Amino acid sequence: NTIFALEEIDSTNEYAKKIAKNNKTGTVVTSNLQTSGKGRRGRGFVSEYGGLYFSIILKPNVSIDKIPFLTQLSACSVYKAMEELKISTKIKWPNDIILNDKKLCGILCEMSCEMDYVSYVVAGIGINIANVEFDEDLQKIATTLEKEGHYINKLDLFWRILRHFDYFYKKFEKDDYNEMIDILRKNSSILGKKISVISLDQTRNATALDIDEKGFLKVQYENGETEHLNYGEISI
Ligand code: BTN
Predict the structure, then answer these.
(1) CB of 53 shorter than 6 A to ligand 1
(2) Which residues pair with 34 in a beta bridge?
(3) pLDDT band of 117, cuts 50, 70, 90
(4) Which one of 34, 43, 137, 233 is most buried, counting C-beta atoms within 10 A?
(5) What does the pLDDT look like over 163-191, one tens digit per residue?
């Protein structure tokens, strides 16, 4: 597989999207610095030197409704790599990795499709490693490995995540979600808790009940209604 290792770029996701057509599935783009790191919902992602930022180009042969699971697959890969390094994290469905109740890692998967056919997906992962100065608001909700007392080798972490990603991706292509669902359930930071489900036009209070066999989040609203969410935004 090809890995594009850059010094500085606006966003590895943006770069990956530009080269996706002419590169194979499994191609990786990483950069030491992102000047315009992207988060979900048009937000930014602080991407100073010292963090790990990368995007994986994927051309999966699966139907569109399975694509959101790639975010869960990415989360499982980061979780497993951290576990090997004796760092105990939690997974906040759908796209954050949490360490000591604060956000350590964000995941942003973007897909491009023509009609119902998925031409490519870019899975972007950003991990806070070095001890950067977050602004006041961010300090309350985000952390870095160093801030939590973990000093690790960035390249070593990178390889570990890619190895787990490769392993889980092969399972994903075979529709074998079991091991990943088990990880998502056992290490969720939200199951059993009261959450808010945020959609474009409303925010509803709910309880996070389970991660179902497809990786959807099963929630129960205050009126008793239940729903299985494939993707979405939640807050605790
Ligand atoms: C989020 O927290 O909302 C998602 C953050 C995703 C950040 C990663 S860093 C590598 C890749 N490139 C980007 O611009 N964003 C993702």
Answers:
(1) yes
(2) 9
(3) confident
(4) 34
(5) 999 999 999 999 999 999 999 999 999 99
